[in-house]
Amino acid sequence: MAGFDFAVYISVFVEMMGSLLWVLVALAVAGTAGFLFVVSREGTIHSRRLLRAELLGVLGGFAALALMAYVTISGFTDAGGPVDWLLIGIIWGVGLAGTTIVAYAIMGLVDIMLGRVPGRPARAG
Amino acid sequence: MEPFTNMPPGMGLDRRTLLKLGAAGSVLAGMGGIAARPAGATPVSVETTAKIVVIGAGAAGLATASRLSKRLKGATITLIDARKRHLYQPGYTLVAAGLKPQDYPISRTEQYVPAGVDWIQEAAEEIDPEAGKVVTESGKEVAYDYLVVAAGIHLDYDAIDGMEINQIGKEGLGSHYLGPEAAYATWREMSRFVELGGTAVFQRPATEMKCAGAPLKYTFLMDDRLRQQGTRANSEVIYVAHTDNLFSVPIVHEKVRMLFEDRGVDVRYSHVLREIDLGSKEAVFEAPDGVQTIKYDFINVIPPMRAAQVVRDSPLPWQDGSAWARDGWIEVDKHTMRHPRYPNVFAVGDNAGVPKGKTAASVKWQVPVAVDHLVADIAGVDSDAVYDGYTSCPLITQMGRAMLIEFDYKNNLTPSFPGVIAPLEELWITWVMKTIALKPTYIAMLRGEA
């Protein structure tokens, strides 16, 4: 019956977010696919690009917390117990991971389209 | 405590599945788990030509019609209710505290009436279980093989001398149970009151009532609003309980008593509101020491509640001379929701005469049980679905925090997430559920999908 249970969750999330749910799902799928495409095409993960994506990811984590605070008319300052800090960590982590993957994919696709290879920084001399 | 120990067989959401679904799933616990499965030997789907009438298109009536239409092929299902607006009543407290807009609880009934269900847009005027028919206000007779009564509740404002509902929203008078408009008018009075402070009085009736946690939540929210405004020190917040406790579940009563003490709420026990003088702003209570008068600057009046008139006029209520009989709650087996004198009649939702919870969470768990027994009757088998009284109450204790209280007929706490979401702890995650996850879960319930 696990499949049925999952279907119930889906119907609740559809009620909660409407078409935004499918936009987010599409973004997650496209972002992950783009990330995998870039990695397989380049055959490696470029550390400088990853670092830039992670810095954006940190901001994405805070954006996720801000969005949650907005829709719940409250915020992480209302945390009252360990499960709240866990929830805050999960929200921040999802924002971080999602933004990092999407940002890395976009930067990678741009580089591929422009024929750039993000190499090591040019050395003087 | 193991979750769902007392849950209907086959009706609990498997905990491992839940844990696998993780944190996203956890926010949906407020209505008491998500999945309901048909129990025992009852077939999921049955072909029949049975005529089924559902009275009432509120939460219980719509959820029943949706589930029946999914499980019965060829049945004639008729829904009788004149109301074109559907009201998400758990949202009233949020509207009355200025947290949600006036139209937040409002949608249209037609959005949830399942395809194939015949909706008669009239009030039911008469129930005749001997003849097996319902008569509508226009005199139309609708015969049935099975009847599900979900006619809801009557707010008996007339039982309070001096109360005038057209004065709600004026001169410190609030009453957030009457509807979205009254809830918003109550918010206007609350927001005006907190600017200067004064004496705020909260009470509940001595009858059965829907969502017995709401008067407590609203008291906590007033306390918080006064603190935010900086006028708490000039104010007195009085909670008037109708018995010697604040909540029918003893362990919850103790927790709320401690929180009220912490917040400086003045509690008066065993007081019942009998009269209100809207001019002099005085509420008159019947108390053990005789009549007590409390002057107020703001009051939230919650009137006595009884079963809907059409139910009280019928032979369906309890006949044992009890308070339940007097208020017209329908006699049902509390575990199956079946009427003992009319076995082809079921009652679900607020009008059912069962000991606990007139809440959406109760509906969530009552409806699948009643539907399963009805479908089993048609299929000629026995259902082993059981309703154990489960209900839940996200008890708001301040803006941004609530306690997820879940319990059953035995006053046992039945936490869905033991060790993760502690039932008597003020948590943000419970507030998150209340503000964003409960309404979608409720809507999915109306559609028979949760």
The parts of chain A where pLDDT drops under 50 for at least 5 residues are: none
The main sheet of chain B comes to:
5 strands, parallel
CATH architecture of the largest domain in chain B: 3-Layer(bba) Sandwich
Fraction in beta strands of chain B: 15-25%
CATH class annotation of the largest domain in chain B: Alpha Beta
Q: How far apart are the termini of chain A?
A: 67 Å
**Low-confidence segments of chain B, ≥5 residues, pLDDT <50?**
1-39
Question: How helix-rich are the residues of chain B, as a percent range?
Answer: 25-40%
Q: Helices and strands of chain A: which structural class?
A: mainly alpha
And the CATH topology of the largest domain in chain B?
FAD/NAD(P)-binding domain
Helical stretch count of chain A?
4
As a percent range, the share of strand residues of chain A is: under 5%
Major sheet of chain B: order of its strands? 7-4-2-11-22
Keywords (chain A): Membrane, Transmembrane, Transmembrane helix
Pfam family, one (chain A): DUF5368
InterPro entries (chain A): DUF5368
Transmembrane segments (chain A): 20-39, 51-73, 85-110
Features:
heterodimer; A: 125 residues; mainly alpha; globular; B: 450 residues; alpha/beta; five-stranded parallel sheet; 24 strands
